[in-house]
Each structure stands twice: as structure tokens, then as C-alpha cells.
Design goal:
The protein is mainly alpha-helical. It is 68% helix and 0% strand.
Length: 110
């Protein structure tokens, strides 16, 4: 069995696609060499975990009625950041989120 990938994508496209929820995890298992792609895949995974945690907190704050105002703002913020991260990856930029990006970088360097 050869070590070739089952597809032939440019690295920046592969990195951008890794921001689709769930795809980043698949990219981690498929891509073993390209650090740019692996960085974006790890950052994507950590981003979606953090986004889910933040969304969950605002959802539970609905009990206090403040969540009704926060949830839509959080949804818009997460969506804008998601598109921005995808756009940066597509444009071959290794944009690093403050905490999540550092974690992703550490995983790539292992």
C-alpha cells in the first residue's frame, strides 16, 4: 500500500477545507507531512470545541434571560470567525488565534 493521499488538493485548499466541522479531524489522520495543513486542522478542531463550549454556556444562560441576548451575538461571532479563519487558510496565511493557535502549534511541533 502506498503512502499517497487519496486526493490531490493544493495545501491551502486542504487547510481551508479543514475548517468545515469534522473535516479537520480527518485531515489530521490523512495529512502527515505538511505543517501548514496540520496547523490549520488542529486549530480547526480546537476552534470548534471552544465554539461548542461557548455556545453551550450562552444556551444555559437563557435560564437567566441574559442568554437570549448573548446567544445570537455568539452565533454571529463564531460564524464570522469561522469564515475569517477559512479565508486566511485559503490565502496561505497561518493566522494564529490567541490561545487556540498556540495549542495547535504545539501539536504540530510534536
Amino acid at each position: 500500500m502506498s503512502d499517497e493521499k487519496p486526493y490531490n488538493l493544493e495545501p491551502h485548499i486542504e487547510a481551508a477545507l479543514s475548517y468545515i466541522p469534522g473535516v479537520g479531524l480527518a485531515v489530521i489522520f490523512i495529512e502527515k507531512e505538511n505543517k501548514f495543513v496540520r496547523f490549520h486542522a488542529f486549530q480547526s478542531i480546537f476552534f470548534w470545541v471552544a465554539a461548542f463550549a461557548i455556545y453551550s454556556m450562552t444556551y444555559f444562560l437563557r435560564i437567566l434571560l441574559i442568554g437570549f441576548f448573548l446567544t445570537p451575538l455568539v452565533n454571529v461571532g463564531i460564524t464570522i470567525l469561522w469564515f475569517y479563519l477559512t479565508w486566511q487558510a485559503y490565502n496561505k496565511v497561518e493566522f494564529e488565534l490567541p490561545i487556540i493557535g498556540k495549542l495547535a502549534r504545539e501539536q504540530v511541533e510534536k
